[in-house]
Amino acid sequence: MKRRPPALLFTVVALASCLLGYWWLVPREDKAEPLPWLGEWQAEVLQPLAEDSLTLGQLDDRLPKAELWLQPRLDGPRLLLRDSQALESGAWVLEAELALTVAQRDSLATASGVKPNDAEQPQSAQMREQLAGQRIEALNLQPQQVISAATLSASLGAPRLRLQLPEGEAWIYPQLGLTAHLKDERLQLLRVVPRRLLSH
């Protein structure tokens, strides 16, 4: 008389068959790829900015189509370098603010004659050359195409801190001086400042 296979064996075989079928039939998500330009920019732009040593001249060399703008404000005018096609891999709007002392702001306001409510004014290439050694104190990169949270994570790793915002979330990387603003799992803005400003 033949022995019947135990019920447990049938259960194991059935379960294995189900798992194998699930593995073959369910589509698997592709692993997110990091941003292709970030490695080079990290070494040559973002890291020097995090170390508080990036100058207008260093940034200007990478952005031949960028323009320098004077922005009037109540606390004194700002100087902003702007470029709407900052990266070869896609459309990014870049805005970098030059570090200015109170005295420099006052001098700039006097020399330009601007008042707080005046419109922004483009500046000459000659002025950009004169200010080549001026430090950059903040840089914003705004993507004009969809960048997913998974792509950002593949590029920068897990953030040290996540903060809930009224709209979305902030991923903070203090060691990089970088904050990423996300909404609905999509990147809205990368902001980089000297890391000393994020260390407190």
Short description:
With 200 residues, this protein is α+β, with helices and mostly antiparallel strands. It has helices spanning 7-25, 38-50, 56-62, 102-112, 125-130, 149-156, and strands spanning 67-71, 78-83, 92-98, 121-122, 136-143, 161-164, 169-173, 178-183, 186-192.
Physical arrangement of strands within the biggest beta sheet: 4-1-2-3-5-9-8-7-6
* Overall shape: elongated
Query: Mean of residue pLDDT?
Result: 86
Distance between the termini: 79 Å
Order of helices and strands: HHHEEEHEHEHEEEE
Strand content: 25-35%
Oligomer state equals single chain
For the sheet with most strands, the description reads:
9 strands, antiparallel
Count of DSSP H/I helices: 6
Estimate percent helicity.
25-40%
Beta strands, count: 9
Q: Taking Cα atoms only, what radius of gyration do you get, to the nearest Å?
A: 25 Å
Uncertain segments are none
Write structural notes for this entry.
- The structure is a single chain.
- By secondary structure, the protein is of the alpha+beta class.
- The chain has one domain (32-198).
- The protein has six helices and nine strands; from the N terminus they run αααβββαβαβαββββ.
- It has a nine-stranded antiparallel sheet.
- The longest helix is centred in the N-terminal third of the chain and has 19 residues, at 7-25.
- The radius of gyration is 25 Å and the shape is elongated.
- The termini are far apart.
